[in-house]
Design brief:
Number of helices: 4
Helix content: 55-70%
Number of strands: 2
Structural class: mainly alpha
Largest sheet: 2 strands, antiparallel
Strand content: 5-15%
Distance between the termini: 9 Å
Radius of gyration: 11 Å
Shape: globular
Strand order of the largest sheet: 1-2
Length: about 70
């Protein structure tokens, strides 16, 4: 799980880091990471919901912080 979060963060920082994250983009990003249902559920549990305006770079920082605490 930790490695997947780091990979997602790298993707966010590399591709359009200043673009706005949305609930739909979060869902698409997680689904693009894995098609394994149990793993996808686990990612959804640890990757925070989008509750306010946040750019991809900042969301990546949050994912790295979560991964660092694992």
């Amino acid at each position: 799980m930790k490695q997947l979060l780091v990979e997602i963060a790298e993707r966010l920082e590399t591709n359009r880091p200043n673009a706005i994250m949305t609930t739909i983009s979060r869902h698409a990003l997680l689904q693009a990471t894995t098609m394994d249902p149990p793993l996808l559920r686990a990612l959804r549990d640890v990757a925070p919901e989008i509750e306010h305006t946040v750019v991809r770079r900042d969301y990546a920082a949050v994912l790295r912080q979560i991964a660092g605490g694992m």
